[in-house]
Amino acid sequence: MPFPHLLKPLNLGFTQLKNRVVMGSMHTSLEETERGFEKVAAFYQERAKGGVGLIITGGISPNNSGMLAPNRAVMQTAQDVKDHQLITQAVHQYDCKICMQILHAGRYAYVPEQVAPSAIQAPISPYSPRALAHDEVIEQINDFVHSARLAKQAGYDGIEIMGSEGYLINQFLVKATNQRQDQWGGSFENRMRFALEIVKQTRQGVGDDFLIIFRLSLIDLVEQGASRDEVLTLAKQLEKLSVNIINTGIGWHESRVPTIAANVPAGYFSGLSENLKQQVSVPVITSNRINTPELAESIIASDKADLVSMARPFLADSQFVNKAIADKSDEINTCIGCNQGCLDKIFVRKTATCLVNPRACNETQMNFVKANRVKKLAVVGAGPAGLAFAKYAAERGHQVTLFEKSNKLGGQFNLAGKVPGKSEYLHTIRYFNKRLSQLGVTLQLNKAVSADDLASFDEVILATGVNPRIPNIFGIEQAIAAGKVLSYEQVLQGEVKVGNKVAIIGAGGIGFDVAQYLSDNSQEPASVTDEKESFTQEWGIDLSLSHPGGLVAKQITPAAREITMLQRRLRKPGTDLGKTTGWIHRQHLKNKQVKMMVGVSYEKIDQQGLHISVKGKPRLLAVDHIINCTGQTEENSLAQFINDKPCHLIGGALDASGLDAERAIYQAAQLALII
């Protein structure tokens, strides 16, 4: 059997999980939409059908004060029970267990009526919390227990008590947010009382035949966070109170250390769950940056955890487990850790989806049924938009031919894959390549298409992408001809040897990618060990937890090159980067000592270098090379020659702004639905 450790059942006494794969908690915002619980039920049902052993829902609050944002889901009433029964009944059709996560946001609640152990405002919140009185603490415990009882009535197999990521329970646990002087604060014995009372009374309320998972923060990554002894002490107390499973929580939301972004090495935090597993006898779940069955198998096989939790990978591919069971992991649509379709949307109160799988969270409305009339379709351009359209159209039964002028699939994703921290973008190309082959899509590589080549097709889809925009700077044409000015494509493809002094014109997403690529001092891909060590040093992480909170002084290695990023607009560079990852990219380049200048006017380029003015003051940047990252223009010139049949534009060919792969793939899917 493939992946024998990952796919081995787990006996929990009164119940059994069919494998060690957990779909971890992740809020989608579906509950808050019209007919939301029907949509959530369909979402989870598809993952259950896909073979996962245990699903943990997104956070459901025990009361109104615990909601992350206004109108978020709670579990308080008989109607709530009825709504959640739609979910449990859907999931239980496929021999899958499901637990409801109970989450009280505390001072992370995005509402003015915040409550917390102490009146200490979170740095990521505009509101200041009110400290809970003793009687109110008791009420909060009662609400947790009440929600757990209702979850059992709703048909859940158990609940997960959210005790990590800086939410209310976690806020009681650490000195940074708990400055109380009563029985709920002071010593660690007092600070952990809130968590233990919730677990103790919940067990009494639900009985022994109901799973209780506690999500324990193994490393807070904030100052005055929990120490190693405190984490282990709490874990052992939870074990005594008959918790069935301990799940791994990593980092607080306010932490300035990446925990799930693509630049976090794969499986980086699994050593923490290994340390915990050695101290307790209850099963331990590991989590964060695990996105392939091979990695998950190796973690369990090496006894670092009993189960592996993955959330975003089940957005990317609901059939992840079934494909692993069939030993077809090369067919998995792998999560690339971009956060663009999921977390970036959640944090601006939009419904989640997935960049590489736009059907995620759209299961009730995006179904690619067989077409009534089979058409012969030509797709020109094999970047993300063209690949996605070809896949979805072929799944509907259309005869698809995909033309690409270069010698490989992937378009701009091939460039993204060169950037440190983005190598997993190449997984998407691998997935599409495999899927198109299965679907019988005809590929014509190294083919520059003319209108005559398209004569026999019923319709044409132009996914021809973009051209780099050339800014209007005196002397730029001569500098391009002389090799002084380079395009971002030339740099990322390694076509030229870039000098030691570089100016990057443009501080958008591409400018940041190029700066990151050029600031990487290694000539060859780093080994797994070296990658982890470099990440540890750059972000100042103490995985041994000898320092409470797990933070130590950073060890920064500046870039070998002198790099200056330039931007016309008077605003923070990278403003349009992802909500949850932009700060990481900015901090990384700051760590590398990349200079950033805003309010720049470009005067001319000559042999001396790049002449600019900043706030009216002239300056000369005597650089070896100038990299043009000032945006793109649509490449859709072929459209004007196609007059005898429908011609559709998608992706960059339709709109070059931002080079938004999520938008491009979504457009492709939407067109494939109706063509």
UniProtKB/TrEMBL annotation:
Top-rank taxon, per record: Bacteria
CDD domains reported in the protein's UniProt record: DCR_FMN
Alphabetized GO MF terms: FMN binding; iron-sulfur cluster binding; metal ion binding; oxidoreductase activity
The UniProt record lists the keyword Iron: yes
Domain FAD/NAD(P)-binding: residue ranges: 376-639
Cofactor(s), names only, from the UniProt record: FMN; [4Fe-4S] cluster
Keyword Lipoprotein: no
Signal peptide: none
Residue ranges annotated for the NADH:flavin oxidoreductase/NADH oxidase N-terminal domain, each copy included: 6-326
Record keywords, A-Z: Flavoprotein, FMN, Iron, Iron-sulfur, Metal-binding, Oxidoreductase
One Pfam match: Oxidored_FMN
PANTHER family xrefs: 2,4-DIENOYL-COA REDUCTASE, 2,4-DIENOYL-COA REDUCTASE [(2E)-ENOYL-COA-PRODUCING]
UniProt similarity note: In the N-terminal section; belongs to the NADH:flavin oxidoreductase/NADH oxidase family.
Protein name per UniProt: NADPH-dependent 2,4-dienoyl-CoA reductase
Lineage: Bacteria, Pseudomonadati, Pseudomonadota, Gammaproteobacteria, Alteromonadales
